[in-house]
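B., you asked whether I could sanity-check this one before it goes into the benchmark set. Here's the sequence:
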Amino acid sequence: MDEIPERLTVKPSWLITQLAVHARRLVSDGFTAAGARGYHYRILAALHEFGPASQAQLSRRCRIDRSDVVAAVNELVDQGFVDRTPDPDHGRRNKVTLTRSGVQQLRRMDGLLDQVQDDLLKPLSAEDRQTLTRLLRQVLAQHEPG
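And here's what the prediction gave me:
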């Protein structure tokens, strides 16, 4: 393996970036094995936690571009994991609702994601994992808009 300059390996930004690349690959591989994508997980999770939503709400909550939400919702509708119906309160908007099959898929994806977390954080104790998660949330909150 090539040597990495120490000035990089002591920078949290560099370490976070390198770990993010690895984490993204693990998550993608896990979801691909289940015939799913990360966008699917985000949308299913938001619908499960917050209930039916418009595609615009899903875009904001999941931090996914609107056009990508439309494509992902189309895939989820085709798979029977969500229903999309016209919103009776707003004629030009659709309402997306989680189906029973969608809840089951979300649970499968939760299990895959839990396994990814275990693989990714294998060298850390349970306490260290909680500390890392708390610190990452704290740093991320500092950089969140409004």
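One thing to flag: DSSP finds seven helices and three strands in the chain. Otherwise nothing jumped out at me.
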